[in-house]
Write a structure and sequence with these properties.
This protein is of the alpha/beta class. It has a single domain, classed as P-loop containing nucleotide triphosphate hydrolases (Rossmann fold, 3-Layer(aba) Sandwich). It has ten helices and ten strands. A six-stranded mixed β-sheet has the order 6-7-8-3-9-10, sandwiched between helices. The longest helix is centred in the last third of the chain and has 16 residues. The protein is globular, with a radius of gyration of 17 Å.
Amino acid sequence: MTDATILLKVNSLQVAYGGIQAVKGISLEVREGELVSLIGSNGAGKTTTMKAITGTLAASSGNIHYLGRDIQGQGAWDLVKQGLVMVPEGRGVFTRMSILENLQMGAYLRDDKVGIATDIERVFTLFPRLKERSAQLAGTLSGGEQQMLAMGRALLSRPKLLLLDEPSMGLSPIMVNKIFEVIQEVAAMGVTVLLVEQNASRALKIAQRAYVMESGQISMQGQAQDLLHDPKVRAAYLGE
């Protein structure tokens, strides 16, 4: 394996805020074309890690390389230009804008009108429910529909690496199934995915590799299928 195949490399990352050391020197990597899961209980530091990677939270030490370049200190908008895009926990849709307007906001750095229109139709193919309601205000959608919209908006940025932070949180079982189906479809389209997810079983079943995070540290890592059947993981995260 060469560094050229590694899209994201995090080394000895530490993040502290409010006097709390939330991330304690973690290292991880995501290779081009992979679907990698980062699992762990609530408060383990997963979301803090994602925020540090995407430039919305400053790291106190360590380094983050994307496409072979150190990206620390770069603004989130600069990283979006480079194809590093996150769907945040809580979705963050523009509630007073329509579904279509939200999708168009995902393409705000682009000027290829034909390509944008094509990508919007692709999102509508992934999420037919959004097409039916394209003029509806995002704030009137259910939680699951807002998650669909947030993912669709991110795809309009044409990400090389898509970070998904807790996409299934608070959703009904039917909607969870749909979201995980779409994550797999997005990965099959060639988008590299880093998935942060409390639903460890579902996350491990669709990932190639995974990291387990506990109390701000990586406690285990390996092939997702191996971790899925690991007794420690099953006892801690799968209720066995």
